[in-house]
């Protein structure tokens, strides 16, 4: 007797939607990850993913195997929508893994649609930090999501957004148990007022450390009060760099809006410290004079915020100004006027804020000791002219205050009185 078993063709059909986010510029866009498990064999990832996302299936497979789960031996089609927007980076691995588990009925995940899920997986299932957590959290709040699940190191940063439940997790099993109702997660809370107060009490470099230099300190106070660009001209050892590094300590405290803007930029670049969610002190950026114009203002195939944007609402210090390439200095003209930089490519245009205070320093001559009778070296007028000619008139015109810095006498340096 022959028995025919007819299996329902719908047995293995399952479609699940999980939500992630892509950061474009300093704004986030919600990405819908659709996972379909069907009869057959194969793993197909579509929706304009980059190479880091394409190779994520190996890490996902290892992470699931090491925690008692598996990628089903079926035909898996994953679509990252909208399909015409490029997705970059490894931050979608947790999103893809949860989608595969839900679509293959290995976890319940009935409340999946209420959460944005992001994280990079290690082979043992632990999570690595991601970039752009703050703009993603802001977008999730705007679009009405209930919560945001992300690596624990980024939780403080995302918890700045009020009205959104932010869950920091260390392992994929925490997420699986959360959706299977086997474990509850504690939302991360952030006290903005406390962060601001502690930052005001502990500046990294204090302007009161500067001894003597009363007239120069007065010039810098005027520059700080009005947000003026300033250039310090003086011989080596006169304290130009020391003065510049301590300028942020006398700038007005950041408002909450300024702090959020600055934190978003540093979040996108991945330069935020895990211990501090919100940037409460004004940034101080001091790039080396070998920097390229692209590294200073931004550019490349997929532009990221660069030095002038990372100095937004803070100070950009260019030490030894004439040593910078002329082409590098000239690209700053427009951002200094517009307080933003727009980078255009064939397929897109992105604008980054760049409202910074420019502080530059330079020697009066190539030898550094022009007009000093006790100088060991002197420079000829032609050498001085060539040295000064490296800085164009239009750029100098955008620097409001030019001040000559003289060395501090030994008696002033040895005084115990603080500035």
Report on this model:
By secondary structure, the protein is of the alpha/beta class. The chain folds into 2 domains: 14-179, Ribosomal Protein S5, domain 2; 195-413, P-loop containing nucleotide triphosphate hydrolases (Rossmann fold), CATH 3.40.50. It contains 17 helices and 16 strands. It has helices spanning 51-54, 56-65, 93-103, 133-142, 155-158, 172-179, 192-201, 214-226, 240-245, 256-269, 293-297, 307-310, 326-330, 333-338, 381-388, 393-397, 410-413; strands at 14-24, 27-38, 42-46, 75-81, 115-117, 120-121, 127-128, 147-151, 165-169, 230-233, 284-285, 315-318, 340-344, 349-353, 357-362, 401-404. It has a 5-stranded parallel β-sheet. A hairpin with a 2-residue loop joins strand 1 and strand 2.
* Count of the domains: 2
Low-confidence stretches: 1-12
Q: Architecture of the largest domain, CATH level 2?
A: 3-Layer(aba) Sandwich
Ends distance: 102 Å
**Can you tell me the overall shape?**
elongated
Report the major sheet: 5 strands, parallel
Radius of gyration: 27 Å
What share of the residues does DSSP label as strand, in percent?
15-25%
CATH superfamily of the largest domain: P-loop containing nucleotide triphosphate hydrolases
Question: How many beta-strand elements?
Answer: 16
Average pLDDT taken over every residue: 87
Instruction: Give the helix/strand class.
Output: alpha/beta
- What is the CATH C level class of the largest domain, in words? Alpha Beta
Which sequence of strands runs across the widest sheet?
A: 11-12-15-10-16
The tally of helices reads 17
CATH topology of the largest domain: Rossmann fold
Fraction of helical residues: 25-40%
């Amino acid at each position: 007797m022959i028995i025919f078993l007819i299996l329902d063709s719908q047995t293995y059909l399952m479609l699940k939607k999980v939500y992630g986010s892509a950061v474009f510029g300093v704004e986030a866009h919600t990405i819908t990850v659709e996972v379909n498990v069907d009869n057959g064999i194969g793993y197909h990832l579509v929706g304009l993913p980059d190479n880091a996302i394409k190779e994520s299936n190996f890490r996902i497979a290892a992470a699931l195997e090491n925690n008692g789960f598996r990628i089903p031996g079926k035909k898996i089609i994953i679509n990252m929508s909208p399909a015409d927007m490029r997705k970059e980076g490894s931050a979608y691995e947790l999103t893809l893994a949860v989608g595969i588990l839900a679509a293959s009925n290995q976890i319940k995940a009935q409340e999946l649609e209420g959460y944005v899920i992001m994280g990079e997986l290690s082979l043992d299932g632990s999570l690595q930090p991601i970039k752009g957590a703050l703009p993603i959290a802001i977008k999730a709040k705007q679009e009405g999501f209930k919560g945001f699940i992300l690596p624990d190191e980024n939780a403080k940063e995302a918890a700045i957004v009020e009205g959104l439940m932010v869950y920091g997790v260390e392992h994929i099993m925490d997420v699986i148990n959360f959706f299977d109702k086997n474990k509850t997660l504690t939302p991360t809370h952030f006290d903005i007022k406390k962060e601001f107060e502690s930052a005001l009490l502990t500046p990294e470099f204090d302007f009161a450390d500067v001894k003597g230099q009363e007239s120069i300190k007065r010039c810098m106070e005027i520059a700080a009060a009005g947000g003026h660009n300033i250039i310090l001209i003086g011989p080596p050892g006169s304290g130009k760099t020391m003065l510049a590094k301590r300028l942020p300590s006398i700038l007005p405290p950041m408002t909450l809006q300024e702090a959020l803007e600055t934190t978003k930029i540093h979040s996108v670049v991945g330069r935020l410290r895990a211990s501090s969610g919100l940037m409460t002190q004004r940034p101080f950026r001091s790039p080396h004079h070998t920097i390229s114009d692209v590294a200073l203002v931004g550019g490349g195939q997929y532009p990221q915020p660069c030095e002038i944007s990372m100095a937004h609402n803070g100070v950009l210090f260019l030490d030894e100004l004439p040593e910078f390439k002329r082409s590098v200095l000239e690209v700053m003209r427009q951002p200094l006027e517009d307080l933003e930089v727009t980078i255009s490519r064939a397929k897109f245009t992105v604008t980054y804020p760049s409202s910074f205070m420019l502080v530059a320093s330079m020697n009066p001559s190539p030898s550094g000791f022009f007009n000093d009778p006790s100088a060991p070296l002197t420079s000829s007028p032609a050498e001085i002219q060539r040295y000064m000619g490296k800085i164009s008139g239009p750029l100098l015109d955008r620097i409001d205050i030019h001040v000559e810095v003289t060395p501090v006498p030994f008696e002033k340096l040895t005084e115990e009185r603080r500035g």
